[in-house]
């Protein structure tokens, strides 16, 4: 039930409601279609019963479920179930002879000098893995027929063990699904009500360990996610919601809540993905082609890349850090994460080496300035000591920060042992944090053969707006955009998502002797499945678009590159055209190509998108060049490293700024959950949509 | 004890440069990996990239293969010596695959690029990577370097930005699959150029002298850490020995390994002069690898997670080598399988140090790549193929407080991946019958060794296989009373007959017919501490998971399980009591 005490409008404003559940906060954005008005709500997340946080946030935003015709949702529930190892009792069925592929993995040892290194820890123990007699070859032929009786016998054991979920991984199922499909039928038949998932439903791409890890993850989180989505759905229905309920996938696309209940791993990174989708929407509004979406919170900073107006994606995510990663082989937005956030701890090692992060003070005890017993200095403490945060106006005044505690922590742990003044030490902490994030941002872009300096940055998350300009300076970027309500940006991004279904099929062939009829057959199959999924949706897309891509490599090469391919290349059966496109992308990404060498296709990819009508964001009131005096909130001395001293820095209330306002740096712009810093020499301008556009170096274009 | 912080450079700038040089080598690695042609580089990540001072000292090495820790630094130093300070110009790229210099084999092409900042030589970027083929004989064992392929002395691939096309043609003519070799060459060139560009950005941003000072400070900090962690090892002379099965020529004649470690205050000496003389078969490595063995062991013991890997970490280490041993071989010793023996030497150093620092030691591991290579003519397209599934991975030794890790690459390898079964079967005419953990292969102990792997591969067309696996007869030892793990092993199935009594695991140039098969078994890790001290609940779980058989639980661990698989505590206590009285305490022989 909605807790809203707000008055009910006479006419129900048709609304799109988005809810993003994060670790600390649940963010709500309600978009009223006719007025273009956006209502915001922020509530503490309620891990034991997540819907409470949503209901509370909806109430705070002053809207109601009844008004909403769509409810869009992103949640950390799926990823947390994996990271906290809090999932179902699951079993795995695999091809005979391959019981251990999940535990063996890729046998690598990245932490290579550490004799106490650790491998990935499987989500289910070996005793829960059972072999099925069957074998399909690399070309998809049945070499050993499926032993159905054996599968039935395993099911009886599983029932006795009280298994809640079953994953199925058979070799080469990407090439021929017949055995996996049959095993699933038998399991579903003999163990009614159990969550059953087969690898080909999630990934039809080769690499048995990665596909295995994917399907096991799906089984492990399946019952939890299924029940959560069902519970939320019940809550919505009881609260008078009569629209469509969608969940954001890691691709940034939406899928039906119904589908999320079986394809759970597709929502692992739903929140961060939605932020990047929001950034892309903003790019389109502003006419920008190349941007970095930069999201910085309490423990991590994340960066996604938008190049030529397209979000860069990856085909595999590594869950739980590289060294002990559990891979999930499904397409997703390539969001690069670095362990740097407001809570990152600065420390001095015994050998005198200073470092910041990746250890974080988290929410408990939190930075020293939270006054909850934290004694390690953090990035937030450094910001406070340098005057960048207002101790009395943190989170809109909901929390008071303890400047003395912050100073004490920095002096004791850093400044005194190094013989540095307090402010220089605090400034040093921020410089280390800034450069470390700038290296990370550079690396995501250069990995793709792109130059980050030519990109604009869209900065959001609680801490993003405070650090973005400094990072942009470091990289040589010219422009930073801080959207409205940067603390709600991921929920905002959901409003701009489309329905989306992704397919991949490994089908190795040399380009020179590829059968186009066969390729068409495979694409047609994927398109058909996509359209069928769209047809099940309650909402009718304004149009449907289909895209083709292929993973290609030079013959002899191992790593394949995903190349987007226009359909006319296939219609014309243009091998040379496809090859030329591959050569170009290879040149762009790796700085080298080999036009005279033969290429091969490894996998075919298809994306079917049901394009939804997008909201038109509300414009803010127009003002003059100078902000109205209401917007001024006095000044504060802020320390800037370039000047090596504190400067009187004017403070503005963001809510009172108007379109067209220009403010020269240094300046601080404060809002509920975030503060934007405009360094000296830079200039900020408020655009028609209320975005803060910081021109680095004050250049106007 | 707090070390006095270094005053040479600003602490903040030092931290920034530390992250900066790591970012340089990370990016070199990414670019090499993604551009490389061959699986050994891309999937197996058999390469290392690095940044070096203008004198060739290591500033940062991108994590790759640990035993490459020294090869690039020595190569850069040799290049400097070869051309002289005035013989290297901006835009030059230098290359060599001289095995005695890199310490490894001819497959390791090593490229280096000088970094000139405003005309001043300020650093080198370098990249060593494994090429699948460099010519030479394909099959059997070699007994000198000349049969191992093309040898390239230190030469310039590029002079002042202009590629030496004559050299490229010489390389193309000497390798079997020139397009792959050229692909790998381009990847390596991309890597050193990437490093040059990124390091120059750092120098431009912060100034040359401040950056170079910060690098010296990073080295001093690494030195301080290594020094403190050496100081905490009790002074003494620690020795251990082990052996390799044979050199592949004189079958059954063991190759002895003896190591001596001397700890005196904050200095450590690792003396490898008593390892075997160089051998006839291709298992020799150059002197650079002798140093690498000592450095890898030293880093694991003193500063395993201190990054970047740099020269400073090794200032408190002295290495003693005699010329002409298996890790200081001289021309014309055969070197093709150089990587097999050194990791056993490193493991033997850990064994020697166990009495001094048990909490930092580790029991023996399978210590071999356990690879099988196969080649033939593909019936589908009539082309030559040369295939493999990469390193198998095996068991690692237990430690004082933790069980050994199962199914992980050997010490020579780092972030090295195996090749997926689904990929290998799609590329090569083979069928993998089985890929599984080896029950009971982990050495019994209070902490159990990790499990090895078994992998059976069937030939679908006629082909030739080659394996040069060692450590069958000297299985991974236990420490502090732990048992040894199972050794490595190979079996063959020829014409339907299983052959499991091979004298060693070196199967060279064996022709297979369709349906013939081979199985590689990688060893398990050694145990740590007496098995009868292992918590019965841990043994019960090991049996439930199938890591340990019920028989081994009884025989080795003295644990009695009831019909439901639960621990019979009373019977277990009785059995263990008898073992304690009856059996003499098991100690490792070292």
Describe the structure.
The complex is a heterodimer of chains A (701) and B (590). Helices cover 30% and strands 27% of the residues of chain A. Chain A has 16 helices and 35 strands. In chain A, helix 9 packs across helix 11 (422-446). The longest helix of chain A has 31 residues, at 208-238. The relative contact order of chain A is 0.09. Helix content of chain B is 30%, strand content 21%. Chain B contains 13 helices and 20 strands. Chain B has helices at residues 11-35, 39-42, 71-83, 99-102, 165-174, 178-206, 208-231, 287-302, 340-353, 421-427, 536-545, 550-555, 569-582; strands at residues 47-53, 58-61, 93-96, 108-117, 120-130, 155-159, 162-163, 236-244, 255-264, 267-271, 317-320, 372-377, 384-388, 430-437, 453-459, 463-469, 489-494, 497-499, 505-512, 517-521. The longest helix of chain B has 29 residues, at 178-206. Mean pLDDT of chain B is 93; it is low at 1-7 and 584-590. The interface between A and B is large, with 73 and 93 residues.
**Which band does the percent of strand residues of chain A land in?**
25-35%
- Pair with the most extensive interface? A-B, 73 and 93 residues
The number of helical elements of chain B comes to 13
Q: Which range does the strand content of chain B fall in? A: 15-25%
Number of strand segments of chain A:
35
Mean pLDDT of chain A: 92
Secondary structure: helix percent of chain A: 25-40%
Portion of residues within helices of chain B: 25-40%
Mean pLDDT reading of chain B: 93
Low-confidence stretches of chain B: 1-7, 584-590
Radius of gyration of chain B: 25 Å
Shape of chain A: globular
Helix/strand-derived class of chain B?
alpha+beta
Strand order in space, largest sheet of chain B:
2-1-5-4-3-6-7
What does the main sheet of chain B amount to? 7 strands, antiparallel
Sheet having the most strands of chain A: 9 strands, mixed
Q: What is the C-alpha radius of gyration of chain A, as a whole number of Å? A: 26 Å
Q: What is the strand tally of chain B?
A: 20
User: Which CATH class of the domain at 86-222 in chain A is shown?
Assistant: Alpha Beta
């Amino acid at each position: 039930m909605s807790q809203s005490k707000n008055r009910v409008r006479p006419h129900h404003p048709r609304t799109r409601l988005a809810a993003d559940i994060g670790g600390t906060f649940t963010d709500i954005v309600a978009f009223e279609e006719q007025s273009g008005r956006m209502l915001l709500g922020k509530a503490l997340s309620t891990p034991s019963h997540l819907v409470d946080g949503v209901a509370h946030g909806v109430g705070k935003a002053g809207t109601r479920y009844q008004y909403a015709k769509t409810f869009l949702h992103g949640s950390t529930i799926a990823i947390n179930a994996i990271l906290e190892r809090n999932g179902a009792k699951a079993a795995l069925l695999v091809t005979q002879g391959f019981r251990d592929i999940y535990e063996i993995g890729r046998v690598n040892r990245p932490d290579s000098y550490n004799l106490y290194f650790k491998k990935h820890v499987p989500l289910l123990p070996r005793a829960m893995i059972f072999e099925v007699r069957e074998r399909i070859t690399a070309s998809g032929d049945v070499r050993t027929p499926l032993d159905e009786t054996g599968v039935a016998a395993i099911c009886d054991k599983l029932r006795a063990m009280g298994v809640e979920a079953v994953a199925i991984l058979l070799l080469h199922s990407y090439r021929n699904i017949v055995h996996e499909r049959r095993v699933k039928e038998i399991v579903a038949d003999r163990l009614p009500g159990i969550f059953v998932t087969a690898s080909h439903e999630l990934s039809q791409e080769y690499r048995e360990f990665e596909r295995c890890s994917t399907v096991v993850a799906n089984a492990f989180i399946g019952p939890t996610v299924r029940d959560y989505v069902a519970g939320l759905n019940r809550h919505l229905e009881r609260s008078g919601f009569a629209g469509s309920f969608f969940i954001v996938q890691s691709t940034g696309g939406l899928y039906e809540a119904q589908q999320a209940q079986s394809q759970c791993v597709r929502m692992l990174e739903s929140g961060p993905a939605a932020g990047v989708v929001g950034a892309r929407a903003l790019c389109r509004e502003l006419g920008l082609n190349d941007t970095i979406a930069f999201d910085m919170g309490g423990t991590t900073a994340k960066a996604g890349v938008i190049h030529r107006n397209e979000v860069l994606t990856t085909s595999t995510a590594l869950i739980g850090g590289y060294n002990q990663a559990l891979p999930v082989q499904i397409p997703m937005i390539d969001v690069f994460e670095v362990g740097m956030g407001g809570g990152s701890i600065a420390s001095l090692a015994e050998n005198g080496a200073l470092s910041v992060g990746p250890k974080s003070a988290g929410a408990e005890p939190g930075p020293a300035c939270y006054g909850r017993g934290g004694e390690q200095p953090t990035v937030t403490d450094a910001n406070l000591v340098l005057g960048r945060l207002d101790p009395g106006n943190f989170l809109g005044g909901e929390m008071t920060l303890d400047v003395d505690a912050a100073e004490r922590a920095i002096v004791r742990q850093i400044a005194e042992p190094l013989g540095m003044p307090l402010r220089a030490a605090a400034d040093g902490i921020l410089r280390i944090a800034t450069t470390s994030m700038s290296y990370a941002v550079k690396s995501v872009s250069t990995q793709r053969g792109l130059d980050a300096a030519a990109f604009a940055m869209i900065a959001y998350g609680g801490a993003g707006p405070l650090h973005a300009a400094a990072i942009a300076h470091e990289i040589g970027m010219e422009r930073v955009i801080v959207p409205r309500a940067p603390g709600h940006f991921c929920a905002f991004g959901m409003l701009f998502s489309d329905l989306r279904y992704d397919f991949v099929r490994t089908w190795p062939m040399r380009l020179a002797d590829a059968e186009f009829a066969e390729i068409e057959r495979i694409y047609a199959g994927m398109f058909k499945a996509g359209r069928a999924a769209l047809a099940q949706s309650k909402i009718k897309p304004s149009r449907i678009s289909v895209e083709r891509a292929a993973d290609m490599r030079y013959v002899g090469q191992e790593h394949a590159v995903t190349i987007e391919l226009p359909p006319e290349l296939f219609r014309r059966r243009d091998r040379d055209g496809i090859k030329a496109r591959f050569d170009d992308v290879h040149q762009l990404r790796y700085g080298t190509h080999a036009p005279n060498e033969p290429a091969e296709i490894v996998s075919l990819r298809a994306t079917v998108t049901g394009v939804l009508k997008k909201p038109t964001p509300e414009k803010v009131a127009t003002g003059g060049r100078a902000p109205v005096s209401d917007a001024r909130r006095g000044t504060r001395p802020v320390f800037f490293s370039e000047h090596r001293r504190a400067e009187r820095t004017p403070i503005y209330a963001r809510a009172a700024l108007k379109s067209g306002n220009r403010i020269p740096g240094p300046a601080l712009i404060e809002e509920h959950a975030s503060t934007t810093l405009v360094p000296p020499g830079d200039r900020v301008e408020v655009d028609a949509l209320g975005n803060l556009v910081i021109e680095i170096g004050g250049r106007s274009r | 004890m707090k070390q006095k912080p270094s005053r040479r450079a600003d602490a903040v700038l030092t931290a920034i440069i530390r992250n900066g040089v790591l970012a340089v080598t990370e990016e070199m690695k990414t670019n090499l990996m993604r551009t490389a042609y061959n699986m050994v580089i891309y999937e197996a990540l058999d390469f290392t990239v690095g940044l070096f001072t203008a004198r060739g000292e290591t500033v940062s090495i991108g994590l790759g293969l640990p035993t490459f820790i020294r090869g690039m630094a020595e190569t850069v130093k040799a290049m400097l010596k070869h051309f002289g300070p005035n013989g290297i110009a901006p835009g030059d790229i230098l290359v060599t695959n001289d095995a005695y210099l890199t310490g490894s084999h001819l497959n390791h092409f090593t490229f280096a690029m000088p970094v000139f900042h405003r005309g001043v030589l300020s650093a080198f970027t370098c990249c060593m990577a494994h090429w699948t083929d460099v010519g030479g004989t394909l099959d059997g064992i070699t007994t000198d370097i000349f049969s191992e392929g093309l040898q390239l002395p230190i030469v310039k691939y590029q002079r002042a930005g202009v590629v030496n096309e004559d050299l490229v043609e010489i390389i193309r003519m000497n390798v079997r699959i020139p397009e792959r070799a050229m692909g790998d060459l381009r990847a390596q060139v991309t890597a050193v150029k990437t490093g040059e560009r990124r390091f120059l950005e750092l120098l431009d941003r912060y100034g040359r002298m401040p950056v170079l000072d910060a690098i010296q400070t990073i080295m001093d900090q690494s030195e301080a850490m290594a020094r403190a962690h050496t100081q905490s090892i009790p002074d003494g002379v620690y020795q251990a020995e082990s052996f390799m099965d044979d050199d592949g020529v004189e079958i059954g004649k063991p190759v002895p390994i003896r190591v001596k470690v001397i700890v005196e205050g904050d200095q450590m000496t690792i003396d490898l002069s008593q390892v075997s003389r160089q051998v006839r078969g291709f298992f020799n490595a150059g002197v650079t690898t002798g140093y690498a063995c000592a450095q890898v062991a030293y880093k694991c013991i003193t500063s395993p997670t201190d990054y970047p890997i740099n020269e400073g970490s090794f200032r408190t280490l002295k290495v003693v080598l005699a010329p002409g041993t298996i890790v200081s071989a001289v021309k014309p010793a055969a070197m093709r399988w150089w990587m097999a023996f050194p990791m056993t030497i490193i493991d033997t150093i850990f064994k020697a140090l166990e009495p001094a620092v048990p909490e930092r030691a580790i029991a023996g591991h399978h210590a071999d790549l356990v690879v099988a290579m196969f080649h033939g003519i593909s019936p589908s397209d009539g082309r030559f193929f040369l295939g493999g599934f990469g390193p198998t991975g095996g068991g690692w030794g237990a430690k004082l407080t933790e069980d050994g890790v199962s199914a992980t690459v050997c010490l020579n390898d780092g972030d090295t991946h195996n090749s997926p079964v689904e990929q290998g079967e799609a590329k090569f005419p083979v069928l993998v019958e089985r890929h599984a953990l080896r029950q009971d292969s982990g050495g019994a102990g209070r902490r159990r060794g990790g499990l090895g792997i078994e992998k059976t591969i069937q030939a679908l067309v006629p082909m030739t296989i080659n394996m040069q696996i060692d450590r069958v007869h000297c299985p991974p030892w236990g420490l502090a009373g732990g048992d040894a793990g199972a050794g490595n092993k190979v079996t063959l199935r020829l014409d339907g007959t299983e052959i499991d009594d091979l004298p060693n695991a070196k199967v060279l140039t064996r022709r297979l017919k369709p349906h013939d098969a081979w199985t590689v078994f990688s060893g398990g890790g050694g145990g740590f501490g007496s098995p009868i001290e292992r918590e019965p609940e841990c043994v019960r779980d090991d049996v439930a998971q199938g890591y340990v058989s019920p028989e081994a639980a009884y025989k080795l661990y003295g644990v009695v399980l009831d019909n439901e698989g639960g621990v019979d505590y009373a019977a277990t206590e009785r059995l263990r009591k008898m073992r304690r009285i009856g059996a003499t305490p098991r100690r490792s022989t070292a």
